[in-house]
Amino acid sequence: MDFVSIRIITGDVARLVAFYERVTGARAAWATEDFAELRIGGVTLAIGGTRTVPLFAPGSARPAENRSVITELLVDDVDGVYEELSGFLTDVVAEPATLPWGNRSLLFRDPDGNLVNLFTPVTAAARAKFGR
């Protein structure tokens, strides 16, 4: 089995794609106006519009209702990224802080309310875990 992607369903694909392009620096590959993918490292963040949901199963996913998943992205310098994104991020949940497991993390919400964690390993154990 291969882990291929995470897909976020949204009511405004263009808005969410633009947000993640700005946060990650990755450019989206658009398949249709209802679906785009951003390759970030070895993982794909897929963004699909609500019109794609019935193709799987009608009513199976609804935009802006996630309260349990956090998308996490490893960055070289979370404090530098936070400074770069200041003024752009509108819903910062927690400014950069070092967590007990050794990562310095910035937690914010995307325009649909989904949590995003940008983090940098800062302790020796955390750096070793991520090969840094």
Short description:
The protein has four helices and eight strands; from the N terminus they run βαβββαβαβββα. It is an alpha/beta fold.
Structure description:
- With 132 residues, the protein is α/β, with parallel strands linked by helices.
- It folds into two domains: 64 residues, Signal recognition particle alu RNA binding heterodimer, srp9/1 (2-Layer Sandwich); 67 residues, 2,3-Dihydroxybiphenyl 1,2-Dioxygenase, domain 1.
- Helix content is 23%, strand content 38%.
- The protein is built from four helices and eight strands.
- It has a four-stranded mixed β-sheet with strand order 1-4-3-2, with helices on one face.
- A hairpin with a 4-residue loop joins strand 6 and strand 7.
- The longest helix has 12 residues.
- It is globular.
- The two termini are 27 Å apart.
- The model has no long low-confidence stretch (mean pLDDT 97).
Strand residues, percent:
35-45%
Q: What spatial form do the alpha-carbon principal axes imply? A: globular
**Helix-strand topology string:** EHEEEHEHEEEH
Number of strands: 8
Alpha carbon gap, first and last residue = 27 Å
Oligomer: single chain
Radius of gyration: 16 Å
With strands numbered from the N-terminus, the spatial order across the biggest sheet is: 1-4-3-2
Secondary structure elements and pairings:
Elements: E1 5-10, H1 13-24, E2 28-32, E3 35-40, E4 43-49, H2 53-56, E5 70-74, H3 78-85, E6 92-98, E7 103-109, E8 115-121, H4 124-129
Parallel strand pairs: 1-4, 5-8
Antiparallel strand pairs: 2-3, 3-4, 6-7, 7-8
